[in-house]
Design goal:
five-stranded antiparallel β-sheet, disordered N terminus
Length: 156
């Protein structure tokens, strides 16, 4: 059940719009403005009207801790690794000014999220089997938010 929750919450992540002053890198728009804050903290990205579904808000929450990135669930106040050691088709990493999450589920649907920490914007991508990668839509102007680490948070 926990893996289903992780897969569903991973897909729930939506992209924040890109700034016009961004540079194109690896198929992902990355803002060149400002330096990213990669210090310990929680990054919350709410994507309203995700994939054109009015009223649907998908949230991706990440924990930055000791130079690494973890997923977070408020359900049990826990930061955890998205992937098992050596797990194929699964990654979550801090790459310069970005959090990059990539996951292939059991139905061969690939979800990829890129969070630009300088601009506090997220881009969600989805790839169905046999199709090209698609940038998912959400409400224009939605941004990610930095928050303090949750009190009493458990780390796995």
């Amino acid at each position: 059940m926990r893996y289903l929750f992780i897969a569903v919450s991973a897909f729930a992540l939506t992209a924040c719009p890109q700034s016009e002053d961004s540079a194109h890198t690896q198929g992902t728009e990355v803002s060149s403005a400002g330096k990213a804050d990669v210090s310990d903290g929680m990054i919350v990205c709410d994507m309203q009207d995700f994939d054109g579904m009015k009223g649907l808000t998908l949230t991706q929450t990440f924990i930055l801790l000791d130079g690494k990135v973890k997923r977070y669930t408020a359900f049990d106040n826990t930061a955890f690794d998205l992937c098992e050691p050596g797990q194929e088709n699964c990654s979550l990493a801090l790459d310069g000014n970005q959090i990059v999450m990539d996951h292939l589920n059991e139905s061969d649907v690939r979800s990829r999220y890129v969070v630009n920490l300088a601009a506090m914007e997220i881009e969600p991508f989805k790839t169905q089997p046999g199709e090209e990668e698609k940038l998912m839509s959400f409400r224009e102007g939605d941004k990610c938010e930095r928050k303090p680490l949750p009190e009493g948070m458990q780390v796995r």
